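Blackboard transcription, Thursday session:
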Amino acid sequence: MTTPLVEDSTGGLKTGDTLLEVDNLIMRYKTKQGYVSAVEDVSFVLHKGEALGLVGESGCGKTSVALSLLRLQADNGEILGGEIRLGGKDLVPISEDEMRRHRWNDVSMVFQGAMNSWNPVYRVGDQIKEALDLHWPERLNRAETRQRIGDLFALVGLDSDAQDRYPHEFSGGMRQRAVIAMALSCNPQVIIADEPTTALDVIVQDQILKELKKIQADLNMSIIYISHDIAVIAEVTDRTGVMYAGKMVEFGDTGDIFSAPRHPYAWLLLSSTPSIVGPRRKLAPLEGEPPNLLDPPSGCRFNPRCPFATDQCRVEEPPLRDIGDDHQVACWNYEQVPVGITSGSVV
Amino acid sequence: MTEARVEVKDLEKRYPVQKSVFRSAKDFIHAVDGINFRIDPGESLGLVGESGCGKTTTGRMLVKLLEVTGGEVLLQDSGEVIDISHITDKDDLKRFRSDVQMIFQDPFESMNPRRTVYDTIAEPLTVQRIGTVPDREAKVAELLNLVGLTPAESFMFRFPHELSGGQRQRVAIARALIVDPTFVVADEPTSMLDVSIRISVMDLMLKLADRLNVSYLYITHDLAVARYMCDRIAVMYLGKIVELADTEDLLGHPMHPYTRALLSAVPVPDPSYQRPPVEIKGGISKSINPEPRCRFYDRCPIAREDICGVQDHPPLEEKAPNHWVACYLVDKQPA
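(Written on the board underneath:)
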């Protein structure tokens, strides 16, 4: 039996069709001090063949969203509302057993720091075999497994024989490639890549991102990139969601968001990011610190740090609304945000 | 030319690779392999490169956290020059310790969780027996104000866990500055911080450099951060400085093939920007007993066997005004 590398288990979805819909997702962590509202009313749609980015600072809830999609949030995390529909089927109410069948086969994840979590005493190939044994619909014999892992390795730019080697024989970039191969092992429709290149040097990062882009195009895969590095998001994604304090504050085409962010937070975040191209700018610092999610501020969660905040922002929470061109913003005063990254004088 | 605040001459650090307990080591890792640079008063020099290139080792040698195995580090101290790698005099050692300080990368690891902010910041004064307790308190309060942790009284007796990452890094900066150093080594001081907090910490360091005329050696892997912080940048590769120039000159007109590859690999926060292709071969080569040729030879896209393959590592030469490059082929490239 041969195992096709590209198997369309999505019932013939075409590029651009809706693959995954997240509707008003609410996930909170229960702690002794109360509920930490990590994901609050987050909605977005992922299309077939699309690369979507979730960007925000640490603690903004981007990883919590990802874990909720797989229902892998920590034990004290509860999905308190909303729907996660994969090909029309809601994953929130289904049993744990059923959920397990969707993991790896439909949605798989490249966890943050996964390249450092290889078991040092097993061969890399054997560790990927474990995923295949558990999740591949049919039982593969030895030769088939080798063949399959070899194919996967070829896909991520590794030598097929590398599967017989131990993690310590791999460089950081190779380990990350192997992690991606493992995530691809069961032909998922969606890969969630949580900070896939954060610990890598820029040259290796460039190679890995190119590889992911190529895989995405070749297999017509959907990828959700999660990163704090907005430059990485700018490079690899088609659409971007900006998160702040558990809320999606802006969502739209990556080009639109980066050329003219409409939410004050997104605008300030981009204005405070240094770059090696373009004029050398004085960057605008974002005053204050993110809120404590045990007790988020009333109204808009960004209002204590927002230069455009009004009385309305302090009381009434802005919904994520459409402002045209598939661009959504959760801000009462988005029209006041200057168009383009203009802040900061050239120095 | 003014006197350099810090001058590094043929600085070298080799680690023995012990293969057997009973035999002395024959192999050495050349972590830092004969580098030269100078830092002027009030200047900030960026040291960039990939992990393992020796940038942190260099920084640690400059603050005497590591012993130098070759070369010297000269520090200017009120008209006198101290060779800090070979200090024998106790007074010199004391002066060195108040002249040179370090800011570490991880604000979560570099602070004792059981000591208050006051204890942490005042420690250099306590250790060096400077001032009385009220003096020290006044000085700590002054520094807390300086680094923007106000009101100082409310921060002085907090513990690290009561502070955010940005606030901790400000404490680390205050601790480094309390002895009025003239030279600070900052090893990735903002890489653990979020973008929004990073800028305010970087601005703080720039402001302090201006005001107190402190010189920095700013170690980072992030070229965009180096551009923001540094007057000049030195690019390191496998223990060697391969290029050194003014920041904008280096970023705008990189000459060394490694610098070019590095710059073209940096992602840019603008989806419409097309980066040039990254021209580099293979993975990082070993730094154990490197071959006597250009360290970048195996990965270089333009290397020539008859030139680069037969000669020792090229010297760092001034190929354009204030633009130093270590490459035999640079002159021959079209400008």
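Lecturer's comment: The two ends of chain A are 64 Å apart (CA to CA).
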